Each structure stands twice: as structure tokens, then as C-alpha cells.
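REQUEST FORM: STRUCTURE PREDICTION
Request ID: SP-0412
Submitted by: Lab K.M.
Chain count: 1
Length (residues): 338
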Amino acid sequence: MPRALVAMSGGVDSSVAAALLVEAGWEVVGVHFKQVEEGTHPASCCSLEAAELAGEVAARLSIPFYVWDLKESFARQVIASTISGYLQGLTPNPCLLCNRSVRFGLALERAKALGFDALATGHYARVVRTERGPRLARGADRRHDQSYMLAALAPRVLEDLVFPLGGMAKEEVRGEARRRGLPNWGRRDSQDLCFLPLLRRALERMPPRALREEGGRVLGSLGVPVTVGQRRGLGLPEGHYVLEVRAGEVVVGREEGLFRKELLLDEVFLWEPLERLEGSRACTRYRSQEVPVSWVGWEGPFLDVVLGEPARAAAPGQYLVFYMGELVAGGGRIVLAR
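STATUS: Completed
RESULT:
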């Protein structure tokens, strides 16, 4: 009988993932990852309420349940990096970083050391077997597809992952939870609000930056993190958008200035030969509109990507992810949009 460790956030998705594996004959053990201190938002996947709900579901499924304290690793590998990114004027992606280093890094290593055959989660994504080995693919429910957030996982990591919900729609998952009488079937989706303490700390340390209009005129100062494309919270008349964020200033202008066709990437990961990426499609943010890729090549240590049509609000610190059909083909962190 195969053994699966199921990461249970307390939400309906991971709960149904555990239930489906039990039904399929797996030996299942549930684990809740505690990544931040108590007192987070009730809707957070790291709140006390979430941990209690995960335990209730495990009891209903008659499976063992544990809580793993990952706060130290989370603080070192995710929180510190994210705060540093904001201070540099970047728009970090803490969820993608957490998936790569903590959830499917440290947690998977522990699972394998304990003799589990797989780590399972409630993500809406699929692992597809190809001639080149396992590849990450979009979830069947495109509205809830989470392959972007998992894109940086190496194929060798995918060997040990199971996504039971990859072929299901969100409505089906809630229906399965209700049919099984799971206590959280109607609970709203967990939000990644475990990062709120992180953002508060960033705010405390954020030095004021000049708020500069495109063309040079200084309009004031800003002491909060902002991202490219943002238009609220700037204290400016409607029609001003953040066009660029630097360590010492924020440049604002009209919406038409948000579109970029050429991006430089670092932290590059490629699952296809470079020449095959020309003609692929790319996302520059989670759930952003796909744009065609017309050219890809190296510019020194960076991957230079020219898009077939401009992408809106491509922000340094976020990731560009290549797709070939349903498969993730690679990607990297945006360092410059021009």
C-alpha cells in the first residue's frame, strides 16, 4: 500500500485531496504546516482555526494528524527574502518562493526521510508523464489553475508529488466535501494571509521614497510598498499608475506606460530547449493574461525574452512562466522590463 503525507491547510481543497487518496487505497497521514506565529487572520492557512479544522477533517477520515513547526525555515527562506525584495523596490512572490523552498523543499525532504512515497496537496495542477520525465501541467479548472505558483519545481521533485484535484473543477471539489460531510465544505478559500506579518515588518522598515511623475516632477513621497500597475493608495488623482519602482523612488504615469515587450530574467529554470520557447506563451503574474513569445536568448547572465505583444504591469521580482500547451516549459524572475 503506497503511503502519502498530505499537507492539510484546513481548507476544503486539501481536505478533499486527503479523502480521495484514502478512498483510492493509500495509507494517508495528514500534516499541518505552522509557518508563522499565532494571531494571524482567521482566513489564513496558518491560523489556529485552520489547524483545528485540518485536525477535525483528519479525525473524520480516521487518519493520523500532526502539526509541523516550520516557522524558523519560513522566516529565514521566505520572510527575510521578501522583505529584502520590497526594500530594493521589487515585487516579490513569496508564495512561489515558499513552494520551492519550504512546502516542496524542506517538507518533502522530511516526508521522504520518514518513508512516505509521496507528498500530496490540494493544488489545482497536474503532473504529466512524458518521454523526458514528469512535467508540471495546468489544472483542468483554468479559473483556479495554480501551475504558475508551482512552476519552479524541478522535474525530480515532481516525481514525489501527487495532486489529486488536478483533473477536477472547484465546484466538484466542494460537492465532494459536502457529500462526505467534511466540516469545512462551505468554508471560504484559504488566503495567503500568512504574509501579513511579513508586510507589516516591511512597512516598519520602509524608508520614504520620492513619488515622481514620469518626466521628472516630484509629487510627494511614499512610505509603503507598492507594485507596478497599482493605482490606489498613492494619494494621487485618478489616472495615475505605478510604472516603475526603484529603491529610492516610485515613478507614476498614465496606464499606457505599463506595457512592456522585452523582459530580462534571472533565476532561470528551463524544461525545454531554448529554441523551442519561441512560439510558446507566457504569464508574467499569477492569473495574468497569456502573451505570445517571439524570441528568447541569453544576454550575459540574463535570459532575454521578447514578447509578441506587450504585457501589462510586468513587475521586477515577479516571475515569467513559459507554457507550451498545457505544460510548464520554464521561466525565471523578472529583473528588468523595457
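NOTES: The longest strand covers residues 259-270.
Reviewed by: T.R.
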